[in-house]
Amino acid sequence: MTESYQTPRSGPEPADADIVTSYPATMHSMSPEMQSAVIAAGSAILGALVSGWFARGAGLRQAVSAQRAGQQQAQALLDSVQQTLNEQRRQIALDIKRRVHAQLLTACASRASAHDASHYVASRQLPPPLLQDPGNPEYDRQRQAQIEIGADDQLRTEQARHDATRDAEMAVAHAMAMVRLETPSVVEEALALVRAARQHSIDPYVEARTAYLAAATEDLRRS
To answer: b/e per residue, 8-42, with b = 16+ CB within 10 A?
Structure first.
């Protein structure tokens, strides 16, 4: 009996073929309830992914908005602080200018009255009345004492006037230096006031003082 030769079959074995061909049929082999559950789970996962993506975008936008709002608030705070500091500096500058103007006015007033130094002279007790007897030695002694006292008073008066003038000039020089530093716009009026104060004449001094006050007031108004 002749044996027939069979050509080997190619491809997977029947068992493997069943496994491969079983995957497409998995959903068909499921019950309707199981299919619904799988679809619902997939939908839930997909919805979570989509929601997460949009939530991420919204979170990023909120973060950017919050950052901008914070920067604007910080800038507003800095602007407010800067305005406060500027106003404080302005008030300090005004106070300095007021003191400078007052200092010059006081120094010039002292310089204008420096020639009248009678208040610097200490009071002296007058000698007893002179005897009406020129030939009496006591008369000569008293007369000489009065001459010495008068000469001493005159010397002390001149010294007091000199000291008062020197002190007033030093005060005027210091005040003028401050005017040049702090209020240069009124230097011309200040120099005119100083010249008038040195003249010991009331009318030019009053006129120069009035002009300086007007210039100082305008300087403070512009500050």
So the answer is: eeeeeeeeeeeeeeeeeeeeeeeeeeeeeeeeeee
Is the pTM above the cut of 0.85? Answer: no
What are the C-alpha distances in Å from 29 to residues 21, 32, 42, 187? 12, 9, 18, 108
Per-residue pLDDT tens digits for 64-97? 888 888 888 888 888 888 888 988 888 998 999 9
* Chain center to CA of 76: 17
Report d(CA 21, CA 29) in Å as an integer.
12
Map tokens 């061909």 to a residue.
Answer: 21
The answer to whether residues 97 and 219 touch, using CB atoms and an 8 Å cutoff, is yes
11-15, 48-52, 109-113, 219-223: segment of lowest average pLDDT: 11-15
Of the candidates 143, 124, 123, 122, the residue with the CA atom closest to the CA atom of residue 132:
143
Q: What is the dihedral of CA 146, 151, 152, 158, to 10 degrees?
A: 150
How many other CB atoms are found less than 10 A from the CB of residue 83? 10
**CA–CA separation, 60 and 62 (whole Å):** 5
Question: What does the CA dihedral 70, 71, 77, 81 come to, rounded to 10 degrees?
Answer: 150
Tokens 């305005």 belong to which residue?
83
